[in-house]
Amino acid sequence: MPRQFFVGGNFKMNGVAESITSIVKNLNAAKLDSNTEVVISPPALYLTLTRELANSNIGVAAQNVYDKPNGAFTGEISVEQLRDTKIDWAVIGHSERRVILKETDEFIARKTKAAVEGGVSVIFCIGETLEEREANKTIEVVTRQLNAAAKELSKEQWAKVVIAYEPVWAIGTGKVATTEQAQEVHAAIRKWLSETISAEAADSVRIIYGGSVSEKNCRELATQPDVDGFLVGGASLKPAFVDIINARI
Ligand SMILES: O=C[C@H](O)COP(=O)(O)O
């Protein structure tokens, strides 16, 4: 079965009720490719508003979740709380959390496990910094990040994961990876899935690209055999997000 194209919109720490309402209403009214799975990720305070407003064919993701079920963890949100508020997805391991908030590979892997075990699907983000790319360490870095998750997840649990390859140097910089650069890393990730998880996972797990995706560059990126969609930051706040969702039509 072909992998369903997947486009995520990560609003990051942007928007208030009024602007988020307008983004969601715009998506509701737009003609979206029915073959593309769409998931939007507003700031935590607006998850319920977004879930209530968005059409049922649009998924909603938290931008983070904690690895413990409950307790004295000020400021954190549990998997159960996400499920309770009808949030079925979480973005985990975004480079902004890895770099700014110093989240480790192991912590990210534990959060991923907690999410999938609790019934929340995960957009699992990986990617190298500019320094790592220039030192030819891209594959080494993404493999290390993936191996940490593989230690926690059973082979079957990868069915609840979408892998987002986001080179840190391409995020919010306007410097998109070339189609060749994206395809090369995506193919290496698929090879890793095949060798480390299973042939079935290599066939079915979506690998999406993130980093300065726009309505201008999305179509060419979408032609690559191992690019199964996008994780979009800045452009997901704009009407052009609809064009990215429809990159394949
Ligand atoms: O989660 C999304 C990525 O960080 C990409 O952000 P960007 O599209 O603004 O470069």
From TrEMBL:
Q: Name one GO biological process term.
A: glyceraldehyde-3-phosphate biosynthetic process
Top-level lineage group: Eukaryota
- Please name the SUPFAM superfamilies in this protein's record: Triosephosphate isomerase (TIM)
Q: In which pathway does it act?
A: Carbohydrate degradation; glycolysis; D-glyceraldehyde 3-phosphate from glycerone phosphate: step 1/1; Carbohydrate biosynthesis; gluconeogenesis
Checking Pfam families in the record gives:
TIM
Asked if the Swiss-Prot or TrEMBL record annotates the protein with the keyword Ribonucleoprotein, the reply is no
UniProt-recorded Gene Ontology molecular function terms: triose-phosphate isomerase activity
Kindly state which keywords UniProt assigns to this record, in alphabetical order.
Answer: Gluconeogenesis, Glycolysis, Isomerase
Please name the PANTHER family in this protein's record: TRIOSEPHOSPHATE ISOMERASE
What name goes with this protein?
Answer: Triosephosphate isomerase
Q: What is the lineage of its organism?
A: Eukaryota, Fungi, Dikarya, Ascomycota, Pezizomycotina
